[in-house]
Specification:
Layout (H helix, E strand, L loop, with lengths): L13 E6 L2 E6 L11 E3 L4 E3 L4 H28 L2 H22 L13 H4 L6 E6 L2 E8 L4 E2 L5 E3 L4 E3 L4 E3 L4 E3 L4 H39 L8 H7 L1 H30 L3 H6 L13 H9 L36
Antiparallel strand pairs: 1-2, 3-4, 5-6, 6-7, 8-9, 10-11
Helix pairs in contact: 1-2, 1-4, 1-6, 2-4, 4-5, 4-6
């Protein structure tokens, strides 16, 4: 699977074969001739990273406890309190799975490869270039795999083997790289998962108290003492205890991740930039204030993919040169 001819270094986008004793050529689509490590599904409509299978594990980590919670906790609390509990208990995991799917199966912001630059190979072009972003000089580097000067904030993902716009990190939990185009659904996934953890924990804890009060009321109705019913209440709500322990542990992961990315959004940083430049005393050239930073992530429209994966290889031309500068303004803070 590979790239279009214009930025693949020679693929013709055709396959030879024989039919009825005579040769014929099959036109290949971009996703069928792709040179990166990404995997494609549903005839090129879905794109994932090479290690996409762990994302199935993430689905199991989410779905398995949700099923237990819905069957034993949410259903009980719905009968005891309100049907709204079941409604929200169903909506939250569905949203979390939806955002996980969008994150894992979207183009993260792949920058199309180009043909090798002969001038660079012959030493007539420098290894690095300087661009100005918000009155700050930024060094961009030539990438030997994709044959281009990486735009500001772009980075070559060694796992996917492609340059990614506004590269954040490669996430094994979603099985792909998180970049410019799937960062927002990634945030929505971890935030929704955090809310789901808190909601399930709260309802599970509440079910313990509700069951205890129910046992006390039943004992008093029989003329018995309602004391010492906590042991029986705990025994009757074992699924609630399990969900409380599970969500408590999971919250430290997704909750911590949510807080960390809330900080990154407010300061207009990426995970890669935070760890790459944490020891360097330099101002953040992309920081435009907390309101503008948040608006850039949450309000800016998600740009179309720069790669037409289902186009025929012989129909795709050379990528727009604007990609090396990020275009006018764009996500680079210009």
């Amino acid at each position: 699977m590979g790239c279009p001819q214009s930025f693949m270094g020679g693929h013709r986008g055709e396959a030879k074969g024989k039919e009825g004793g005579g040769p014929h050529r099959k036109r290949l689509r971009v996703y069928e001739a792709w040179e990166g490590n990404e995997k494609f599904f549903c005839w090129g409509f879905l794109i994932t990273g090479p290690n996409w299978k762990p994302a199935i594990g993430t689905v199991f980590i989410l779905v398995a406890p949700v099923v237990i919670y819905l069957v034993f906790v949410a259903s009980y609390m719905t009968l005891q309190r309100s049907a709204a509990i079941m409604v929200f208990s169903c909506i939250l995991p569905v949203l979390a799975l939806l955002f996980l799917f969008i994150t894992a199966c979207s183009d993260p912001g792949i920058i199309p490869r180009r043909q090798p630059d002969e001038e660079y190979l012959q030493g007539r072009k420098p290894r690095t270039k300087e661009v100005v972003v918000n009155n700050h000089r930024i060094i961009t580097r030539y990438n030997d795999t994709c044959h281009l000067y990486q735009p500001p904030r772009a980075h070559h993902c060694s796992v996917n083997d492609n340059c990614i716009e506004r590269f954040d990190h490669h996430c094994p939990w979603v099985g792909t790289t998180v970049g410019k185009r799937n960062y927002r659904p990634f945030l929505l996934f971890i935030y929704t998962s955090t809310v789901l953890c808190l909601y399930a924990f709260g309802n599970s804890l509440a079910s313990l108290f509700v069951r205890h009060q129910e046992l006390v009321d039943e004992a008093e109705a029989r003329g018995e003492s309602g004391d010492d019913k906590w042991g029986e209440a705990i025994g009757d709500t074992i699924p609630s205890i399990v969900i409380m322990a599970y969500t408590f542990l999971l919250f430290w992961f997704v909750g911590g991740l949510s807080g960390f990315h809330a900080y990154l959004v407010s300061t207009n940083q990426t995970t890669y930039e935070t760890f790459r430049y944490r020891h360097e005393d330099r101002p953040n050239p992309y920081d435009r204030g907390i309101i503008a930073n948040c608006a850039e992530v949450w309000c800016a429209p998600i740009e179309p993919s720069k790669v037409k994966f289902r186009a025929f290889v012989d129909e795709v031309g050379e990528p727009d040169a604007d990609v090396e500068t990020g275009g006018p303004g764009g996500a680079y803070g210009g």
